[in-house]
Specification:
- There is one protein chain.
- With 64 residues, this protein is an all-alpha fold.
- The chain has a single domain, classed as DNA polymerase, domain 1.
- It is built from five helices and no strands.
- α1 packs across α2.
- The chain is globular and about 30 Å long.
- The relative contact order is 0.19.
């Protein structure tokens, strides 16, 4: 696991596999996650309702 993935894992409180999946789909930065829709995040393998809630608690969606 690279440093960026590990940093994302710690910031979001998620496991390494989900952090790696986020990086693979281009959502490897908190700013990218902030701009992503919930539907985009739910499309990432391993992200279900509970994980999405955990991510949004730490990185809220940017207001349009």
């Amino acid at each position: 696991m690279d440093a960026r993935t590990q940093k994302l894992q710690l910031k979001l409180g998620i496991n390494a596999e989900i952090a790696e999946a986020l990086v693979r789909v281009g959502l490897g930065k908190p700013s990218s996650i902030r701009n992503a829709t919930d539907e985009m995040l739910r499309a990432v393998p391993g992200i279900g309702k509970a994980t999405l809630e955990r991510i949004r608690a730490r990185v809220p969606r940017k207001e349009p």
